[in-house]
Amino acid sequence: MNAVAEALVEAITPQTNLNAVIVMVDGHAVAVPVGSTVVAAIAHAHATVLTRKSVSGMPRGPVCGMGICQECRVTIDGRAHQLSCQTLCEPGMDVRTAAWEGQK
Question: What number is the average pLDDT over the span 26-40?
Answer without folding.
Answer: 93
